[in-house]
Amino acid sequence: MGGPADIDGECHRECDNFHQSPFVVNGITYANAEHYFQWAKCVLEEDKERILKVTEAVEAWAIGNNVRLRPDWEKVKVRVMYVGNKARFEQHPELLAPLVSTHGKVVFTGSTSFWLGRQHIHTRTHTRTHTHAHTDSIVLASIYIDISKTFRLSVPSLPTADRRNKWNGKIMELIRAEARRGPGDAEHATALWQEIEAYEALNAGKGVRRWVPRDD
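Structure (tokenized):
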């Protein structure tokens, strides 16, 4: 899932995986990071083609949650999200610049629990920008529920406190550190790569988790 990031008290829409910002990887053009992520999980070429044909990220997300997954998906999915976003930012310097200019923790509220980590959807009243960011998160959560019902998918719990990993935020911090190369960035990037590699080692050989159609 997507959603803008909150960094240094500001809403950063360039970090949204749903942000329409076409980029190319290995000769294939993807409309946004979500298209790349959902395409990369597929085994069947017909599923990949279906994802590439839709224009909206939420459509790609819906298709990707009802496909046959590659057997190593649990292991590689974090790195896949990194590769897609890394290519997107490198090919769109106008999006990379505002990210590199930040310094604080990257926080997401408009995604699923795996990518959010310990964050939760909450009300913000600080500024108009924050209000809009909160509204976007609620809209994305609503879309998430509606699509799951439409496609008869089992729905994992929405973001709450005490989740496992904050991978969306970690990936953005890694891309920022690698691009900026300022004081402490190399150390931070190394630590983040160690976390990714530890996650991959933990999930090596694990079977994929599939969406189970509902009976109702």
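Strands lie at 5-7, 10-12, 23-25, 28-30, 107-108. The CA atoms of residues 32 and 171 lie 16 Å apart.
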